[in-house]
Amino acid sequence: MNIMPEQLEMITEQFKTLKDRSPFYAKKFDGIDLAAIKTQEEFETLPFTDKGDLREAYPLGLTAVPMEKIVRIHSSSGTTGTPVIVPYTKKDVEDWAVQFARCYEYAGVTPADRVQITPGYGLWTAGIGFQAGAELLGAMAVPMGPGNTEKQIQFMMDMETTVLTATASYALLLAEEIEKRGIQDKIKLKKLITGSERAGEKIRNRIIEALGVEYYDIYGLTEVYGPGIGISCQHSHGMHVWSDYVYLEIIDPDTGKVLPDGEWGEIVLTTLQKEGAPLIRFRTHDLSRIIPGECACGHNEHPRIDTITGRSDDMMKIHGVNVFPAQIEEILATFPELSSEYQIRLSHLDGRDTMRIYVETNGSVDWEDLRKRVASSVKAKIGFTPLVKIVELGLLPRSEKKTKRVFDERYD
Protein backbone atom coordinates (compact mmCIF):
# COMPACT_ATOMS: atom_id res chain seq x y z
CA MET A 1 0.00 0.00 0.00
CA ASN A 2 1.07 3.58 -0.51
CA ILE A 3 2.35 5.43 2.51
CA MET A 4 0.04 8.28 3.56
CA PRO A 5 1.56 11.79 3.56
CA GLU A 6 0.98 12.16 7.30
CA GLN A 7 2.67 8.79 7.94
CA LEU A 8 5.70 9.76 5.89
CA GLU A 9 5.85 13.06 7.75
CA MET A 10 5.88 11.26 11.14
CA ILE A 11 8.59 8.88 9.93
CA THR A 12 10.87 11.61 8.54
CA GLU A 13 10.35 13.69 11.69
CA GLN A 14 11.58 10.90 13.96
CA PHE A 15 14.44 10.16 11.55
CA LYS A 16 15.88 13.65 12.25
CA THR A 17 17.01 12.61 15.74
CA LEU A 18 16.68 8.82 15.81
CA LYS A 19 20.40 8.05 15.71
CA ASP A 20 21.10 10.62 18.42
CA ARG A 21 18.42 9.17 20.69
CA SER A 22 19.05 5.49 20.04
CA PRO A 23 22.46 3.75 20.13
CA PHE A 24 20.62 0.73 18.72
CA TYR A 25 19.65 2.56 15.53
CA ALA A 26 22.92 4.48 15.37
CA LYS A 27 24.56 1.06 14.93
CA LYS A 28 21.74 -0.44 12.83
CA PHE A 29 21.76 2.41 10.30
CA ASP A 30 25.47 3.16 10.38
CA GLY A 31 26.44 4.74 7.07
CA ILE A 32 22.82 5.58 6.17
CA ASP A 33 21.72 9.21 6.10
CA LEU A 34 18.22 8.96 7.59
CA ALA A 35 17.63 12.67 7.01
CA ALA A 36 17.84 11.99 3.27
CA ILE A 37 14.87 9.59 3.38
CA LYS A 38 12.03 11.61 1.85
CA THR A 39 9.95 9.17 -0.23
CA GLN A 40 8.33 5.76 0.10
CA GLU A 41 10.81 4.32 -2.42
CA GLU A 42 13.74 5.57 -0.33
CA PHE A 43 12.14 4.25 2.86
CA GLU A 44 11.82 0.79 1.30
CA THR A 45 15.60 0.65 0.80
CA LEU A 46 16.17 0.63 4.57
CA PRO A 47 17.18 -2.72 6.11
CA PHE A 48 14.63 -4.68 8.10
CA THR A 49 14.70 -5.10 11.86
CA ASP A 50 14.01 -8.55 13.26
CA LYS A 51 13.72 -10.26 16.61
CA GLY A 52 17.37 -11.29 16.50
CA ASP A 53 18.36 -7.60 16.46
CA LEU A 54 16.13 -6.96 19.45
CA ARG A 55 17.56 -9.88 21.41
CA GLU A 56 21.07 -8.51 20.89
CA ALA A 57 19.90 -5.27 22.54
CA TYR A 58 19.08 -7.08 25.82
CA PRO A 59 18.36 -5.81 28.41
CA LEU A 60 17.56 -2.16 27.66
CA GLY A 61 19.50 -1.41 24.49
CA LEU A 62 16.30 -0.58 22.59
CA THR A 63 15.69 2.48 24.76
CA ALA A 64 15.50 5.69 22.72
CA VAL A 65 14.74 8.16 25.54
CA PRO A 66 16.51 9.08 28.81
CA MET A 67 16.12 6.16 31.20
CA GLU A 68 14.13 8.25 33.71
CA LYS A 69 11.32 8.52 31.13
CA ILE A 70 10.78 4.74 31.13
CA VAL A 71 7.78 3.85 33.31
CA ARG A 72 7.30 0.17 32.44
CA ILE A 73 8.86 -2.77 30.63
CA HIS A 74 7.27 -5.77 28.95
CA SER A 75 8.81 -8.86 27.44
CA SER A 76 7.84 -11.07 24.52
CA SER A 77 6.16 -14.35 25.42
CA GLY A 78 8.74 -16.59 23.73
CA THR A 79 10.24 -19.30 25.92
CA THR A 80 13.55 -19.83 24.12
CA GLY A 81 16.60 -17.68 23.66
CA THR A 82 17.40 -14.29 25.12
CA PRO A 83 14.15 -12.42 25.89
CA VAL A 84 13.22 -9.18 24.17
CA ILE A 85 12.71 -6.38 26.68
CA VAL A 86 10.52 -3.53 25.44
CA PRO A 87 10.59 -0.23 27.39
CA TYR A 88 7.54 2.07 27.51
CA THR A 89 7.24 5.76 28.33
CA LYS A 90 4.16 7.29 29.94
CA LYS A 91 2.99 8.40 26.49
CA ASP A 92 3.51 4.88 25.08
CA VAL A 93 1.32 3.42 27.84
CA GLU A 94 -1.36 6.05 27.24
CA ASP A 95 -1.23 5.61 23.45
CA TRP A 96 -1.59 1.86 23.83
CA ALA A 97 -4.72 2.32 25.96
CA VAL A 98 -6.17 4.68 23.35
CA GLN A 99 -5.60 2.08 20.62
CA PHE A 100 -7.11 -0.67 22.76
CA ALA A 101 -10.19 1.39 23.60
CA ARG A 102 -10.62 1.94 19.85
CA CYS A 103 -10.49 -1.85 19.38
CA TYR A 104 -13.34 -2.27 21.84
CA GLU A 105 -15.34 0.44 20.08
CA TYR A 106 -14.89 -1.26 16.70
CA ALA A 107 -16.23 -4.46 18.30
CA GLY A 108 -19.28 -2.58 19.56
CA VAL A 109 -18.26 -2.71 23.22
CA THR A 110 -19.73 0.12 25.34
CA PRO A 111 -19.41 1.40 28.93
CA ALA A 112 -22.43 -0.78 29.76
CA ASP A 113 -20.40 -3.95 29.06
CA ARG A 114 -18.53 -6.13 31.54
CA VAL A 115 -15.24 -7.41 30.17
CA GLN A 116 -13.75 -10.61 31.61
CA ILE A 117 -10.00 -10.70 30.98
CA THR A 118 -8.40 -14.16 30.93
CA PRO A 119 -5.02 -13.53 29.20
CA GLY A 120 -1.93 -13.38 31.40
CA TYR A 121 -0.59 -10.42 33.34
CA GLY A 122 3.00 -9.58 34.30
CA LEU A 123 5.72 -9.23 31.67
CA TRP A 124 3.28 -10.44 29.02
CA THR A 125 1.42 -7.53 27.42
CA ALA A 126 -2.00 -9.11 26.99
CA GLY A 127 -3.85 -8.87 30.32
CA ILE A 128 -2.87 -5.34 31.24
CA GLY A 129 -3.59 -4.13 27.69
CA PHE A 130 -7.12 -5.54 27.69
CA GLN A 131 -7.70 -3.99 31.11
CA ALA A 132 -6.36 -0.51 30.28
CA GLY A 133 -8.47 -0.31 27.13
CA ALA A 134 -11.64 -1.38 28.93
CA GLU A 135 -11.10 1.14 31.71
CA LEU A 136 -10.39 3.99 29.28
CA LEU A 137 -13.56 3.10 27.39
CA GLY A 138 -15.48 3.07 30.65
CA ALA A 139 -16.49 -0.61 30.64
CA MET A 140 -16.24 -2.76 33.77
CA ALA A 141 -13.02 -4.78 33.76
CA VAL A 142 -13.04 -8.19 35.46
CA PRO A 143 -9.28 -8.94 35.58
CA MET A 144 -9.28 -12.70 36.13
CA GLY A 145 -6.01 -13.61 34.43
CA PRO A 146 -5.41 -17.13 33.12
CA GLY A 147 -6.50 -20.47 34.51
CA ASN A 148 -8.89 -21.65 37.23
CA THR A 149 -11.67 -22.54 34.82
CA GLU A 150 -14.14 -23.26 37.62
CA LYS A 151 -13.76 -19.72 38.98
CA GLN A 152 -13.82 -18.21 35.48
CA ILE A 153 -17.22 -19.76 34.77
CA GLN A 154 -18.57 -18.85 38.20
CA PHE A 155 -17.58 -15.20 37.75
CA MET A 156 -18.94 -15.26 34.21
CA MET A 157 -22.34 -16.13 35.66
CA ASP A 158 -22.21 -14.03 38.84
CA MET A 159 -20.80 -10.88 37.20
CA GLU A 160 -23.00 -11.33 34.12
CA THR A 161 -19.98 -10.93 31.88
CA THR A 162 -20.90 -9.72 28.38
CA VAL A 163 -17.43 -9.66 26.75
CA LEU A 164 -14.84 -12.42 27.06
CA THR A 165 -11.20 -11.84 26.11
CA ALA A 166 -9.01 -14.92 25.69
CA THR A 167 -6.73 -16.90 23.47
CA ALA A 168 -8.73 -18.99 21.02
CA SER A 169 -7.47 -22.11 22.80
CA TYR A 170 -8.83 -21.03 26.16
CA ALA A 171 -12.07 -19.77 24.65
CA LEU A 172 -12.54 -23.26 23.18
CA LEU A 173 -11.82 -24.89 26.53
CA LEU A 174 -14.36 -22.61 28.27
CA ALA A 175 -16.93 -23.13 25.51
CA GLU A 176 -16.67 -26.92 25.75
CA GLU A 177 -16.91 -26.81 29.54
CA ILE A 178 -19.98 -24.52 29.49
CA GLU A 179 -21.62 -26.77 26.89
CA LYS A 180 -20.79 -29.89 28.89
CA ARG A 181 -22.46 -28.42 31.98
CA GLY A 182 -25.48 -27.27 30.02
CA ILE A 183 -25.38 -23.75 31.47
CA GLN A 184 -25.51 -21.70 28.28
CA ASP A 185 -28.73 -20.07 29.51
CA LYS A 186 -26.86 -18.73 32.57
CA ILE A 187 -24.12 -17.12 30.50
CA LYS A 188 -24.72 -13.55 29.29
CA LEU A 189 -21.81 -13.37 26.83
CA LYS A 190 -22.38 -11.34 23.68
CA LYS A 191 -18.86 -10.88 22.31
CA LEU A 192 -15.56 -12.74 22.26
CA ILE A 193 -12.24 -11.04 21.47
CA THR A 194 -9.31 -13.36 20.85
CA GLY A 195 -5.69 -12.88 19.91
CA SER A 196 -2.16 -14.17 20.45
CA GLU A 197 -2.53 -17.27 18.27
CA ARG A 198 -3.94 -18.27 14.91
CA ALA A 199 -7.42 -19.83 15.00
CA GLY A 200 -8.79 -21.68 12.01
CA GLU A 201 -12.39 -21.43 10.81
CA LYS A 202 -13.37 -24.73 12.41
CA ILE A 203 -12.22 -23.65 15.88
CA ARG A 204 -13.92 -20.28 15.52
CA ASN A 205 -17.22 -21.82 14.41
CA ARG A 206 -17.06 -24.35 17.24
CA ILE A 207 -16.70 -21.54 19.80
CA ILE A 208 -19.42 -19.39 18.20
CA GLU A 209 -21.81 -22.34 18.15
CA ALA A 210 -21.21 -23.20 21.80
CA LEU A 211 -21.26 -19.66 23.23
CA GLY A 212 -23.53 -17.83 20.78
CA VAL A 213 -21.17 -14.84 20.55
CA GLU A 214 -19.88 -12.37 17.99
CA TYR A 215 -16.23 -13.27 17.33
CA TYR A 216 -13.52 -10.62 16.94
CA ASP A 217 -9.83 -11.07 16.11
CA ILE A 218 -7.44 -8.61 17.74
CA TYR A 219 -3.92 -8.04 16.45
CA GLY A 220 -0.66 -6.95 17.99
CA LEU A 221 2.67 -8.07 19.39
CA THR A 222 4.75 -7.09 22.38
CA GLU A 223 7.45 -5.45 20.28
CA VAL A 224 4.82 -3.06 18.86
CA TYR A 225 2.89 -2.02 22.01
CA GLY A 226 1.13 -5.38 22.43
CA PRO A 227 -2.33 -6.58 21.36
CA GLY A 228 -4.56 -3.70 20.32
CA ILE A 229 -2.92 -2.22 17.22
CA GLY A 230 -5.77 -3.59 15.14
CA ILE A 231 -9.05 -5.54 15.28
CA SER A 232 -11.76 -6.92 13.05
CA CYS A 233 -14.87 -4.74 12.89
CA GLN A 234 -18.51 -5.81 13.07
CA HIS A 235 -18.46 -6.63 9.36
CA SER A 236 -15.92 -9.41 10.07
CA HIS A 237 -13.80 -9.00 6.96
CA GLY A 238 -10.21 -8.47 8.02
CA MET A 239 -8.58 -6.54 10.86
CA HIS A 240 -8.22 -2.76 10.71
CA VAL A 241 -4.67 -1.68 11.67
CA TRP A 242 -4.35 1.80 13.21
CA SER A 243 -2.62 3.86 10.54
CA ASP A 244 -1.97 6.76 12.92
CA TYR A 245 0.24 4.54 15.10
CA VAL A 246 1.87 2.05 12.70
CA TYR A 247 2.82 1.92 9.03
CA LEU A 248 2.05 -1.45 7.46
CA GLU A 249 3.92 -3.25 4.68
CA ILE A 250 3.56 -6.76 3.25
CA ILE A 251 6.76 -8.31 1.90
CA ASP A 252 7.80 -11.49 0.15
CA PRO A 253 9.43 -13.37 3.07
CA ASP A 254 12.09 -14.82 0.77
CA THR A 255 13.13 -11.75 -1.24
CA GLY A 256 12.10 -8.89 1.06
CA LYS A 257 10.30 -7.22 -1.85
CA VAL A 258 7.26 -5.12 -0.92
CA LEU A 259 4.11 -6.70 -2.35
CA PRO A 260 1.03 -4.95 -3.72
CA ASP A 261 -2.28 -4.96 -1.87
CA GLY A 262 -4.07 -8.30 -2.10
CA GLU A 263 -0.94 -10.46 -2.27
CA TRP A 264 -0.03 -12.74 0.63
CA GLY A 265 3.25 -12.24 2.43
CA GLU A 266 4.84 -11.27 5.75
CA ILE A 267 3.67 -8.31 7.81
CA VAL A 268 6.29 -5.60 8.42
CA LEU A 269 5.50 -2.77 10.85
CA THR A 270 7.01 0.64 11.55
CA THR A 271 5.87 2.56 14.64
CA LEU A 272 4.94 6.19 14.08
CA GLN A 273 4.59 7.55 17.63
CA LYS A 274 6.37 5.10 19.94
CA GLU A 275 8.94 6.80 22.18
CA GLY A 276 10.52 4.16 24.42
CA ALA A 277 11.44 1.67 21.71
CA PRO A 278 10.51 2.79 18.19
CA LEU A 279 10.63 0.10 15.53
CA ILE A 280 11.63 0.63 11.91
CA ARG A 281 10.56 -2.00 9.34
CA PHE A 282 10.11 -4.76 11.93
CA ARG A 283 9.57 -8.24 10.46
CA THR A 284 6.75 -9.82 12.45
CA HIS A 285 6.88 -13.18 10.56
CA ASP A 286 3.05 -13.15 10.61
CA LEU A 287 1.59 -14.10 7.24
CA SER A 288 -1.33 -12.13 5.85
CA ARG A 289 -2.26 -9.67 3.10
CA ILE A 290 -3.64 -6.15 2.84
CA ILE A 291 -7.28 -6.44 1.80
CA PRO A 292 -7.87 -4.09 -1.13
CA GLY A 293 -10.98 -1.97 -1.45
CA GLU A 294 -13.24 -0.35 1.10
CA CYS A 295 -14.80 -1.82 4.24
CA ALA A 296 -18.55 -1.56 4.83
CA CYS A 297 -17.87 -0.02 8.25
CA GLY A 298 -16.59 3.13 6.54
CA HIS A 299 -13.29 3.34 8.44
CA ASN A 300 -11.14 3.19 5.34
CA GLU A 301 -8.42 5.39 6.80
CA HIS A 302 -7.21 2.25 8.60
CA PRO A 303 -6.08 -0.52 6.20
CA ARG A 304 -7.25 -4.09 6.75
CA ILE A 305 -5.16 -7.21 6.97
CA ASP A 306 -6.66 -10.66 6.43
CA THR A 307 -6.83 -13.37 9.08
CA ILE A 308 -3.30 -14.46 10.02
CA THR A 309 -2.64 -17.76 8.24
CA GLY A 310 0.50 -18.62 10.19
CA ARG A 311 4.10 -17.53 10.49
CA SER A 312 6.88 -17.58 7.94
CA ASP A 313 9.09 -19.30 10.52
CA ASP A 314 6.48 -22.04 11.20
CA MET A 315 7.38 -23.92 8.06
CA MET A 316 8.14 -27.62 8.41
CA LYS A 317 10.31 -29.38 5.84
CA ILE A 318 9.65 -33.09 5.42
CA HIS A 319 10.51 -35.37 2.48
CA GLY A 320 11.75 -32.28 0.67
CA VAL A 321 8.34 -30.62 0.91
CA ASN A 322 7.70 -27.28 2.64
CA VAL A 323 4.58 -27.56 4.82
CA PHE A 324 2.81 -25.02 7.01
CA PRO A 325 0.53 -26.09 9.90
CA ALA A 326 -2.25 -23.99 8.34
CA GLN A 327 -2.21 -26.26 5.28
CA ILE A 328 -2.81 -29.35 7.43
CA GLU A 329 -5.52 -27.52 9.37
CA GLU A 330 -7.32 -26.53 6.16
CA ILE A 331 -7.35 -30.16 5.00
CA LEU A 332 -8.68 -31.42 8.33
CA ALA A 333 -11.41 -28.75 8.28
CA THR A 334 -12.93 -30.45 5.22
CA PHE A 335 -13.88 -33.48 7.36
CA PRO A 336 -17.06 -32.76 9.37
CA GLU A 337 -16.48 -35.93 11.42
CA LEU A 338 -13.37 -34.37 13.03
CA SER A 339 -13.26 -31.93 15.90
CA SER A 340 -11.32 -28.66 15.61
CA GLU A 341 -8.37 -30.07 17.56
CA TYR A 342 -5.34 -31.75 16.06
CA GLN A 343 -1.69 -32.42 16.81
CA ILE A 344 1.28 -32.87 14.45
CA ARG A 345 4.37 -34.79 15.54
CA LEU A 346 7.48 -35.02 13.40
CA SER A 347 10.02 -37.75 14.15
CA HIS A 348 12.99 -39.44 12.51
CA LEU A 349 12.64 -43.21 12.44
CA ASP A 350 14.73 -45.80 10.60
CA GLY A 351 16.59 -43.19 8.60
CA ARG A 352 13.59 -41.20 7.39
CA ASP A 353 11.33 -38.41 8.58
CA THR A 354 7.78 -39.24 9.63
CA MET A 355 4.75 -37.03 10.18
CA ARG A 356 2.06 -38.28 12.55
CA ILE A 357 -1.23 -36.40 12.66
CA TYR A 358 -3.52 -36.97 15.64
CA VAL A 359 -7.17 -36.02 15.13
CA GLU A 360 -10.31 -36.34 17.25
CA THR A 361 -13.67 -37.85 16.35
CA ASN A 362 -16.60 -39.44 18.13
CA GLY A 363 -17.46 -43.13 18.12
CA SER A 364 -20.20 -42.96 15.48
CA VAL A 365 -17.94 -43.20 12.43
CA ASP A 366 -15.71 -45.88 10.91
CA TRP A 367 -12.34 -44.84 12.35
CA GLU A 368 -10.26 -46.92 9.93
CA ASP A 369 -12.08 -45.54 6.91
CA LEU A 370 -11.72 -42.00 8.28
CA ARG A 371 -8.01 -42.51 8.92
CA LYS A 372 -7.44 -43.64 5.33
CA ARG A 373 -9.45 -40.75 3.88
CA VAL A 374 -7.55 -38.16 5.91
CA ALA A 375 -4.18 -39.64 4.94
CA SER A 376 -5.23 -39.77 1.28
CA SER A 377 -6.36 -36.14 1.35
CA VAL A 378 -3.05 -34.98 2.83
CA LYS A 379 -1.18 -37.01 0.20
CA ALA A 380 -3.22 -35.41 -2.59
CA LYS A 381 -2.78 -31.85 -1.32
CA ILE A 382 0.73 -31.91 0.19
CA GLY A 383 2.52 -34.68 -1.70
CA PHE A 384 3.32 -37.34 0.91
CA THR A 385 1.35 -39.73 3.11
CA PRO A 386 1.38 -39.07 6.87
CA LEU A 387 0.59 -41.53 9.63
CA VAL A 388 -2.89 -40.57 10.83
CA LYS A 389 -4.00 -41.52 14.33
CA ILE A 390 -7.70 -41.20 15.25
CA VAL A 391 -8.41 -40.55 18.94
CA GLU A 392 -11.55 -40.02 20.99
CA LEU A 393 -13.22 -36.63 21.22
CA GLY A 394 -11.65 -34.57 24.02
CA LEU A 395 -8.48 -36.67 24.30
CA LEU A 396 -6.11 -34.08 22.82
CA PRO A 397 -5.02 -31.46 25.37
CA ARG A 398 -6.82 -28.12 25.70
CA SER A 399 -4.88 -25.11 26.94
CA GLU A 400 -5.50 -22.13 29.19
CA LYS A 401 -2.99 -20.17 27.09
CA LYS A 402 -1.87 -21.10 23.58
CA THR A 403 -2.27 -24.66 22.37
CA LYS A 404 0.93 -26.21 21.05
CA ARG A 405 -0.07 -28.29 18.03
CA VAL A 406 3.28 -29.01 16.33
CA PHE A 407 6.02 -31.07 17.97
CA ASP A 408 9.24 -31.56 16.04
CA GLU A 409 10.98 -34.47 17.76
CA ARG A 410 13.50 -35.14 14.98
CA TYR A 411 16.35 -33.40 16.79
CA ASP A 412 15.51 -34.15 20.42
UniProtKB/TrEMBL annotation:
The keyword Transport does not apply. GO terms for molecular function: nucleotide binding; phenylacetate-CoA ligase activity. The keyword NAD does not apply. Monomer. One of its GO terms (biological process) is phenylacetate catabolic process. InterPro entries: AMP-bd_C_sf (IPR045851), AMP-dep_Lig_C (IPR028154), AMP-dep_synth/lig_dom (IPR000873), ANL_N_sf (IPR042099), PA_CoA_ligase (IPR011880). Residues 64-269 form the AMP-dependent synthetase/ligase domain. Residues 320-410 form the AMP-dependent ligase C-terminal domain. Keywords: Ligase, Nucleotide-binding. This is Phenylacetate-coenzyme A ligase. Its EC number is 6.2.1.30. It holds the Pfam family AMP-binding_C_2. Belongs to the phenylacetyl-CoA ligase family. Gene3D superfamilies: 3.30.300.30, N-terminal domain of ligase-like (3.40.50.12780). Pathway: Aromatic compound metabolism; phenylacetate degradation.
